[in-house]
Amino acid sequence: MDILIRNIDPVAMKKIDEMAKRKSISRQEFLKSIVEKVAYEKEQNEKDMRMEMIISKNIFVMGEMTEAVNRLEILLSDLMEE
Predict the structure, then answer these.
(1) Any alpha helices (H) in the chain, and if so which ranges?
(2) Alpha-carbon span 68 to 29, nearest angstrom
(3) Which of 13, 20, 56, 60 suits a disulfide with 30, CB 3.0-4.6 Å?
(4) In a 10 Å sphere around its CB, with 0-12 CB exposed, 13-18 middle and 19+ buried, how is residue 31 labelled?
(5) What is the pTM of this model?
């Protein structure tokens, strides 16, 4: 699908061209990537937030497991001394 945008500020266009050149891609490729990124940004942010929540829960559970293992080590040590 094609998009035509008119009346772009020349200074803005120059900056866009410079950014594309730094990435060694055409203006069209550069703008296409930006448009596609904007289109999927909400879904990506939601996925990122879900992933962060899963990671946080895993870290919490790992901490709980570490405490449980430490308590078991102490209990076993105490039982072996008796």
Answers:
(1) 10-22, 27-81
(2) 54
(3) 20
(4) middle
(5) 0.56
State the average pLDDT over residues 77-81. Answer: 91
Burial class (CB in 10 A: 0-12, 13-18, 19+), 3: exposed
CA 70-71-77 angle, to 5 degrees, is 90
Q: Which residues of 37-65 are buried (b: 16+ CB within 10 A; e: fewer)?
A: eeeeeeeeeeeeeeeeeeeeeeeeeeeee
Tokens representing 15 are 């900056």
Let me know: does 20 contact 26? Beta carbons within 8 Å: yes
